[in-house]
Amino acid sequence: MRAFSVQVANTRSPIMIHPDGVERDDFERVAAWIARYFEQPGAYRVFPQVRPGDVIGALPAEAPERGESFDAIFADFERIVVPATTHWNHPRFFAYFATSAAPVAIAAEALAATLDVKAMLWRTSPAATELEMVTMRWLARLLGLPPEWTGLIYDTASIAGFTALAAAREALDPSIREEGISGRALPVLRVYITEQTHSHVEKAAIALGAGRRNVVRVECDRDFRMRPDPLRARIAADRDAGMKPMAIVATVGTTSTTSVDPVRAIAKIAREFGVWLHVDAAYAGVAAIVPEFRYLLDGVELADSLVVNPHKWMFVPMDCSVLYVKNEAVVRQAFSLVPEYLTTPETDAINYMDYGLQLGRRFRALKLWFVLRHYGAEGIRQRLRGHIALAQEFAQWVRAEPHWEILAPHPLSVVCFRYAPPGSDEAQLEARNAAILEAVNATGDVFLSHTKINGRYALRLAIGNLRTQRSDVELAWDLLKRATA
Ligand code: PLP
């Protein structure tokens, strides 16, 4: 591309401006690399053989003074970055919540980056804004949500959850938005969770000024589900003590065991006391697309907000978390603040900057739209059913094997289990299972993670990757058994 020059005031020589060229070859190389990556999904070690600091050590201390060729940059990507990556797209990634990026959504990400809109106002991004509205309605129908609910896309469930709790605070006491919480006497705000609730709720309580100490852990039943009776008793006691119950967070698919809180019973209590109910279904919510798993969201229509993460179990690459709210006006009241330079003549359009902390927003709806169209609801259902069936089969293998045990119910695609030879105390079992985990992960063939359940160390196998086959799960089981030798 031709360079052109401009004369800047007070300088003698013109400054040369080199517009960026479009290097078709570079794009084609990247496209070919991505295609190859997915053609040989198991080619890399799922968990890399690197130590903390290795990547830093392989790179210069300073940014280059002169631009480098794409060849040089890409060569270092392949030499330094790829081998030091934990490959979430590997079919034997079984850790945390196993996720994967649909190639069609990766293409959409490239297109979104190309358009590079900042989707804060309708006029900065009409297509992004309206595609978000359309995909949110499509997804709401698939999940069986009330048609009047509004869907909003955020980066993560942590931020979507924070936004829901900010709305809960706004609904409870709108004065806080203007007056703040410092320097005046306010009742104590309380949030109700269980010990299984994801930690982002506590972070939100910190950020919103409620304070960690006012996050109340309600007792669970033996299957790790919130118990409604103690919830009611705690809310009543707090109210009688002059505190303000602000929100209950129920979880559908808890992080450790995927237990499902009884949303309908909890919602009745929330209504009785006028408390905001937020349902965190970050992982499991999408399974409600499958008719036989719609029960997961039973009662959710009585809640005030719900989070589901297409970037967890719906093949949308990081990041894409969806918040549904019954009353979008409360979220807008909590966050809308329009400086003069962002005023806009369209009075009948939605401006997504009004619904959260972020101003500029990525065009996330594009990849969700590509995924929904590429697989269709039936294609997604079929894949989720497959993952759940594989996890159930794995649990049967564990149960049938002497000295192995299942540690929690496994209604979905995650199994918590451990090796438990007789005659070992808890400390020995923890050390033994931690060693098994280290050994199987060190092979580079599989990657699992762990948790603690009622103080007991548990190995955790999560299935959620598009490319995982039965043979991958068989290999994991084989490696686990071999690691006990
Ligand atoms: N909620 C639940 C139940 C989770 O399991 C997780 C993460 O695993 C989160 C929220 C946080 O998700 P994100 O990484 O999107 O913030």
Write up what this structure looks like:
- With about 475 residues, the chain is α/β, with parallel strands linked by helices.
- It has 2 domains: about 120-360, Aspartate Aminotransferase, domain 2; about 370-480, Alpha-Beta Complex (Aspartate Aminotransferase, domain 1), CATH 3.90.1150.170.
- Helices cover about 40% and strands about 15% of the residues.
- It is built from 15 helices and 13 strands.
- The strands form 3 sheets. A 7-stranded mixed sheet has the order 3-9-8-7-6-4-5, with helices on both faces. Strands 10-11-13-12 form a 4-stranded antiparallel sheet. A two-stranded antiparallel sheet has the order 1-2.
- A hairpin with a 7-residue loop joins strand 10 (about 405) and strand 11 (about 415-420).
- Helix 4 (about 105-115) packs antiparallel against helix 13 and helix 13 packs across helix 15 (about 470-480).
- The radius of gyration is 25 Å and the shape is globular.
- The mean pLDDT is about 95.
How many helices in DSSP terms? Answer: 15
Q: What is the radius of gyration computed over CA atoms, rounded to a whole number of angstroms?
A: 25 Å
CATH-scheme architecture of the largest domain: 3-Layer(aba) Sandwich
Distance between the termini: 64 Å
Question: What is the N-to-C succession of helices and strands?
Answer: EEHHHHHEHHEHEHEHEEHEHHEEHEEH
- In what range is the share of β-strand residues? 5-15%
**How many structural domains does the protein architecture include?**
2
Largest sheet: 7 strands, mixed
